[in-house]
Amino acid sequence: MTHPEPQRRLGTSEIVISAILMGTWQAGKRMWVGIDDGESVQAIRAALDAGVTTIDTAEVYGEGHSERIVAEAIAGRRHEVVLATKVFANHLRYAQVIEACDRSLHNLQTDTIDLYQIHWPSGSWNSELVPIGETMAALNDLKTAGKIRAIGVSNFSRSQLAEALEHGRIDSLQPPYSLFWRQVEQELQPFCVAHNITILAYSPLSQGLLTGRFRQGHQFAEGDHRAKHKLMQPEHFARVQQALRNLEPIAARLELSLGTLALAWLLAQPQTCAIAGARTAAQVAENAQAMAVHLSPQDLAELDAIGRSVTDFLDDRPVQWNF
Question: N or C: which terminus of the chain has fewer CB atoms within 10 Å of its end residue's CB?
Fold first, then answer.
């Protein structure tokens, strides 16, 4: 039996995070449809009430809008929260990192960011190439100054992660990882286990696919980035639907929703926590349930096989969208 631990140590730091983190990309509104600020605030507060005490955001989510919504939601409760945010790929020069951190501190209305992460490696999205040593020097200085407590990276390859580690302590890696998206298991997960780096899985529900919400023939609203997700494309979508049908009896037997089952599988993987976004308080409560689920070795083996029926047909590129 895997016994869930709702609270876990972040890397080698003193920081204790919740096994499920509240993701707030959608609270930034950009690239999402039908998001209401008041509902976002309520969802974040519901997360804290459900034991999801760690909130992940980024400067690029709506150009600070998500960070400001997080600040509004946690007003008066900062002491209950572990805050994680990110600096984008176009702000990785020394002075830019310092400025970006100060902006995020202001947006979040806090003196300290618990986990500050490089969102994408230098050079991503046509950004300038900046030596990792320069970026890490700024992050190390922010840590010494007490403005941040721990350093993480996101969307890094194994070699990029190894290089960053030469310049300072990295306590987390944030990659895309779900039952239907498992490239991280090849090289990155063993490396993270060996170096005591916590994996913070983003898109742990494959952007909602693993909830079973998007069935054959689903049409996304204009402007919803999920329409471009590789798993939504015809060559993979039929296999995804068959895998969901195979997951349903397991979820029914364990009396869980499909989404909660998929999150519980992730939390049972080595060194892995999951960042689950939610628009509503009800979704938050469902996500939080995964922190209390016990999966047997047989359950895990069945889930593993069903996941592979989708992932064995994907290429090795870790980016999930055809942007």
Answer: C
